[in-house]
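I hope you will forgive my troubling you with a question about protein structure. Here, with my thanks, is the record as I have it:
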Amino acid sequence: MPPKPAPRGPIGRRRPVAGGSLPFAAASRKLPLMSSEPHKRYRSALFSFRFLGTAVLGSVVMALVAAFGPPAAQLAVLGGFVSILGGLFLSYLGQEDQREKERTAAIQSLAVPLSLASDPELFQRYQEIAGSLTELGTRTDPILRRISLLKLASVSEQLDGLGRGKIVFALTEGWRTVYEEILRSPDLREYRSVSWVRSPKYWQDEPGAQSMRVNFEAVDRGVLVERIIILRDELWPAGEAMPSPKILPWIKEQHNNGLWITLVRESELSRESELLMDMGIYGDRAVGTQELDDTCRTLRFTLDLDPQAVQLADSKWQRLMLYARSLRSMLDQQPRQE
């Protein structure tokens, strides 16, 4: 006898293919499968008891009024029925509008995972976040709920910033990883930065020295690196041709490694305090701003990929250049030592 064929599943349902899956397969497994039973046939509303009973009752009342009532009563009853019919019609329109809004909201909720389906990595993170929120919804402890809502508000704000192309690092030097990655990107052709030096310790620690080496590597690859250094008066006293020896070696090191250096005294910007900042402009791609404490440690670093933010940073750069003096020209004016 020929072997019996392998049992097949319900018609229309395919078995999963081994070794391959769609990016949203994990999410689709959570959805209930479509039933293989034949669809139920629903009777028309015209044959329902509510409609037929209401129609018969209304017809009987109208017939009695038409047969025994005066014309005024007939007109009053007819007007009442028309008003009721109009009210029911308007109520139906309102319910239909509400159902349409609910359908639109449901479609929009599906649009997020569908739009992320083409990016497996982002979709995986979406699943993890959605799964964690679902699990959190099963917790009933009120203290946990309050703490979770506060934490989620902070996370939501960070995600909103990421969606707008803004990344914020607070109280950490971890921003240098992103900073160095951008400087090493092969499509970068120009990097302009503003360094507000308020202490001889500025970028003198190991993380600062490492970032400076990345600057030198970028110059070796052909990237144009320009830097405006804003110096406090104690680091570049008025009347002195060159900055203080406390900071001058750090400045010359950059000049000797191919950076285009210009200098500005902080006191010269007293009327334009918004130009006192630490900033980096990465071509036309992004702008980074850094906030430091008195010990030159990072309080906050913000990387913004918004084109308008880049344009604003470029405007500030052009204003700073009105005050800047080229270090090369200053060195050329120095008397040569025999």
In short: The radius of gyration is 36 Å. The beta strands are 166-170, 190-197, 224-231, 260-265, 278-282, 286-292, 298-304, 325-326. Residues 121-164 form one domain.
